[in-house]
C-alpha cells in the first residue's frame, strides 16, 4: 500500500511547517549524498530556512563546485575573485596617482626656484622655457586686463 498524494500548498501551521521542512531537508540531503556516492557525481546543495539559517551539503569543496558551476554556465566569477581584481586595480591606480603627485610636487618646487641643483642641463633649459612661456602669458593677460580697466575708467570719465 502506497502513500497518498500530498497537495502542494503552503502549510499554514508554523510548527507543522517547520517539522516538514526539517524532515524534507534531511531527506534531500540524504538523496544528494546517495547520488554523489552511487554515481560519483559532484553535488552541492544550499538550503535557507525561513528563519534565514543556511544548511549545505557538498560532495567536494563547495567553493570549487560553485566556481565550476559559474564557469560552466557562463556566469561572471564570484565576488571574491572580482574583489581581488578590483583591489589590484585600485592599488595600481593609487600608486600611479602617488607618482604623478610626487612629480607635480617636484615641478612646483622647481618653478618656485627650489631644488634646482637636482636638475641636469636639459631639464634646466626646459624649465627656463616653461617659465618664459608663463611670464609671457602673464604679461599678455596683465596687458589685456590693464586695457580693460583703462576702458572702464574712460567710460566713467565721459559719463561723469
Automatic annotation (TrEMBL):
Transmembrane feature ranges: none
| Source domain of life | Eukaryota
Which terms does the record give in the GO molecular function aspect? DNA-binding transcription factor activity; protein dimerization activity; RNA polymerase II transcription regulatory region sequence-specific DNA binding
Which residues lie in coiled coils?
87-114
Location(s) in or outside the cell: Nucleus
Any single biological process term in GO: positive regulation of transcription by RNA polymerase II
Record's GO cellular component, any one? nucleus
Among Gene3D superfamilies, the record links this protein to: Transcription factor, MADS-box (3.40.1810.10)
Any idea where the MADS-box domain is? 1-61
This protein's major location comes to nucleus
Q: Alphabetically list the UniProt keywords.
A: Coiled coil, DNA-binding, Nucleus, Transcription, Transcription regulation
For this protein, the record's InterPro entries field holds: MADS-box/MEF2_TF, MEF2-like_N, TF_Kbox, TF_MADSbox, TF_MADSbox_sf
What are the boundaries of the signal sequence?
A: none
Q: What is this protein called?
A: Mads-box transcription factor
